[in-house]
Amino acid sequence: MSSSLLNARNPLSFLLRTFTLQRFSTTLTHVSDENKFNATLGTNPSFIHPTAIVHPNAVIGPGVSIGPFCTIGSSAKLGNACQLYPGSHVFGNTELGDQCILMTGAVVGDDLPGRTVIGCNNVIGHHAVVGIKCQDMKYKLGDECFLYVGDNNEIREHTSIHRSSKPSERTVIGDNNLIMGSCHIAHDCKVGNNNIFANNTLLAGHVMVEDYAHTAGAIVVHQFCRIGSFSFVGGGSVVSQDVPKYMMVSGERAELRGLNLEGLRRRGFSVTEIKSLRTAYRKIFMSTEANSGGFEDRLAEVEEHEDLAHVPAILEWLLSHAMIPPLCFQAGLNICMHLTDSYRPCVHPLFLQSY
């Protein structure tokens, strides 16, 4: 029997087949594999691949693209124009802001009590794991735990970022951070804005990183340590003490190596500010210029110095040093290794909000 006769007897099936072919061709024709999801955003309010598993209670914003074999849990919320590449997953009480991208294999959130909140315009790389149970043995199963991530962060492949260890704590990542491949940010860490973590940067629990810090590859930071703003940690370092603002440290047991001069120049510090920081560094840390008083006496001397106290960078530095446990000092320096018990935390505004 001829095909024309079959079409005449079954006009409806013929029309359906023709419409399906046309619809398929207009959706996927002339679209390269790497741009398929971008193309669907322009042709459909939202796109969910037939092989994806999306719970009916999940909230999906307009323009969202969910690729093959993705999983979206019942309490998940996906903001506008998010893109989930094949095999990425969103579990538990997790919220993605607008225009987030989950690359293949990325996992965000889990089914533990608590919450994972990811801001807008974040990229989570291939097989990264963000917002899962911490590795703290003191965590009690069933306790709420939290992770809050700001905007415009790039979290690269195989990175792991854990939720907090207690209901009263938060793991917080700020804005505009580049977290390269295979980094680890443990429970209750506080990371500020505009930081760069090179590959295999490992932060233990409760570590604080302020703003514009830069770590080279394969560094380890001990729990409860603090990395100051505009500082640099050299590759392969083991940081077991606090890194002061503006400083450069390196070594198997990281020691102070001087000012982060190149970093300060790149961040727009003036020549005058850099010279003043260098003078203050010598007065506080260099044994040849250090007076016989304690560390606090030397800080007070710099604060009262006519040529230094008015420099904003110096004042910020002095305030941050009304601080905490030991600093990374140069080996052999005869200075007090412990400071006052007062502590002024530097955290992202997300941490200060009430959830």
From TrEMBL:
InterPro entries, alphabetized: Acetyltransf_C, Acetyltransf_C_sf, Hexapep, Lipid_A_LpxA, Trimer_LpxA-like_sf
Limits of the UDP N-acetylglucosamine O-acyltransferase C-terminal domain: 242-316
Protein's UniProt keywords contain Lipid metabolism: yes
Keyword Transferase included in the entry's annotation: yes
GO biological process, one term: lipid A biosynthetic process
GO cellular component entries: membrane
Keyword annotations: Acyltransferase, Lipid A biosynthesis, Lipid biosynthesis, Lipid metabolism, Transferase
Matching PANTHER family: ACYL-[ACYL-CARRIER-PROTEIN]--UDP-N-ACETYLGLUCOSAMINE O-ACYLTRANSFERASE, ACYL-[ACYL-CARRIER-PROTEIN]--UDP-N-ACETYLGLUCOSAMINE O-ACYLTRANSFERASE, MITOCHONDRIAL-RELATED
Protein name, per record: UDP N-acetylglucosamine O-acyltransferase C-terminal domain-containing protein
Organism, scientific name: Nyssa sinensis
